[in-house]
Each structure stands twice: as C-alpha cells, then as structure tokens.
Amino acid sequence: MGDIKNFLYVWCGKKKMTPNYEIRAAGNKNRQKFLCEVRVEGFNYIGMGNSTNKKDAQSNAARDFVNYLIRAGEVKAADVPSVGPSMSEFGTSANKGEGGGFGNLPSGGPIPPHLVVKAEKGRILAFSKICVF
To answer: Domain residue spans in the chain?
Structure first.
C-alpha cells in the first residue's frame, strides 16, 4: 500500500469515516493549477495540496492530512508509506539530533524539502573538507 491516498482511505475505513476531497482549478488555462482540500468528519483540520494535475493535488492533500494525524498522535509515523528522500539516505538519525540538525522528526518518513537541501549542502561541505581544492 504505497499510495498515501489509499493509506488515508484505509485508515478512515477502519474508523467508519470517509475522506472528502474538494478540488478547484486556479490560474489561466495555459498554467492551470489545482487546489485540493481533504476533510475527515470528526477532525478540525483541512489537508491542503496543490499541483499541476488533480491526482497529485489529491495526494499532496492526503499527505498533509496524514502528517496532521501523525502530529496529533492518531497514526504512527512508521505505519505511513513514505515518498521522497528519507532520513536513512542521508546517514543521519532523526531522533538523536546528530550532525544533521533534523530535530525531532519521526524516523522512516520523508524529510521536508528545506532539510533535504540542508543535508545536501552538508554533504558538499564535508566533501570539500576532505578534498582540498
């Protein structure tokens, strides 16, 4: 079950709920974007996502809602399918705060884009310290 939308749907099904997606187009026809909101009854949170296509906008909204569920303690981060770079790819420990400065992020999940850039800069910096130019 690698798809985040499927994960959210299955989780909601176990709780006898259904995620409700609302999609609307924004921008002109040449550079159209789709904005998506996902709501689940009983939760006072709206998952938001956008993309140049509807499917990705829905996935982004589902990912946002699942991240909320993790923060709220409703779901364990280890149970969520990850997409994108993970902490293990950067050789850092999420909970120990070693070198990477990732704070207290759940392990095994994707890391935020700004931290990916930070980790890549750290790798380049470490490489430049080893190889004197």
So the answer is: 3-42+54-72
SS3 of the chain? CCCHHHHHHHHHHHCCCCEEEEEEEECCCCCCEEEEEEEECCCCCEEEEEECCHHHHHHHHHHHHHHHHHHCCCCCHHHCCCCCCEHHHHCCCCCCCCCCCCCCCCCCCECCHHHHHHHHHHHHHHHHHHCCC
Q: Do the beta carbons of residue 113 and residue 119 sit within 8 Å? A: no
Q: Per-block average pLDDT, block size 10, for the chain (133 residues)?
A: 84 95 93 96 95 95 96 92 57 46 57 59 50 49
* The dihedral formed by the CA atoms of 124, 125, 130 and 133, expressed in degrees to the nearest 10: 90
Q: What is the pLDDT of residue 15?
A: 94
Global pTM reads: 0.63
Q: Which CATH number fits domain 3-42+54-72: 3.40.50.300, 3.40.630.30, 3.60.110.10, 3.30.160.20?
A: 3.30.160.20
Point out which residues pair with 35 in neighbouring strands.
24, 50
